[in-house]
Amino acid sequence: MVKEKPNSIRIYDDEGFRRRAACICVRSDAETEVLLVTSSRRPDNWIVPGGGVEPEEEPSVTAMREVLEEAGVIGKLGRCLGVFENREHKHRTEVYVMTVTQELAEWEDSRLMGRKRQWFSIDDALAQLALHKPIQRHYLQQLKRSKQTKPDDPGS
């Protein structure tokens, strides 16, 4: 079942790319596990939660709204990993890291369409995304790169 948003207005940038936002949801600051959700179009496929930026909405707000709708999680928004371009579908997605602090037992998309969520190791998530959403693999590769370049935590 595909989710219909009757009042949804698509926002485009100056070059005609649809503006989107997404979150890589992590379980902890270690960033070793990420949350994926089942696709609304293909329930056997796992994807990164995200969606279209709405009028007058900041991409960071979009990202948090989308993970609440699609994954049923709330958390602390962290760094922006960058803007990722998909030329085939002509959209640009601003991707953030969010540390999950709460997982709801039931949420909008679980009720409306039976969407599921699941925690994956980074490598397992990369393998899942390679099957159906190869462009989203870039999000996780950037997560790994940005984690490696962060200064070591003196408390560890």
UniProtKB/TrEMBL annotation:
Its main location: cytoplasm. GO terms for biological process: adenosine 5'-(hexahydrogen pentaphosphate) catabolic process; diadenosine hexaphosphate catabolic process; diadenosine pentaphosphate catabolic process; diphosphoinositol polyphosphate metabolic process. Coiled coil: none annotated. Residues 17-144 form the Nudix hydrolase domain. It catalyses: diphospho-myo-inositol polyphosphate + H2O = myo-inositol polyphosphate + phosphate. It is an enzyme of class 3 (hydrolase). GO terms for molecular function: bis(5'-adenosyl)-hexaphosphatase activity; bis(5'-adenosyl)-pentaphosphatase activity; diphosphoinositol-polyphosphate diphosphatase activity; endopolyphosphatase activity; metal ion binding. InterPro entries: DDP-like_NUDIX, NUDIX_hydrolase-like_dom_sf, NUDIX_hydrolase_CS, NUDIX_hydrolase_dom. GO terms for cellular component: cytoplasm; nucleus. CDD domains: NUDIX_DIPP2_like_Nudt4. Its cofactor is Mg(2+). Keywords: Cytoplasm, Hydrolase, Magnesium, Metal-binding. It comes from the Eukaryota. Its EC number is 3.6.1.52. SUPFAM superfamilies: Nudix. It is found in: Cytoplasm. Belongs to the Nudix hydrolase family. DIPP subfamily. This is diphosphoinositol-polyphosphate diphosphatase. It comes from Euphydryas editha (Edith's checkerspot). The lineage of its organism: Eukaryota, Metazoa, Ecdysozoa, Arthropoda, Hexapoda.
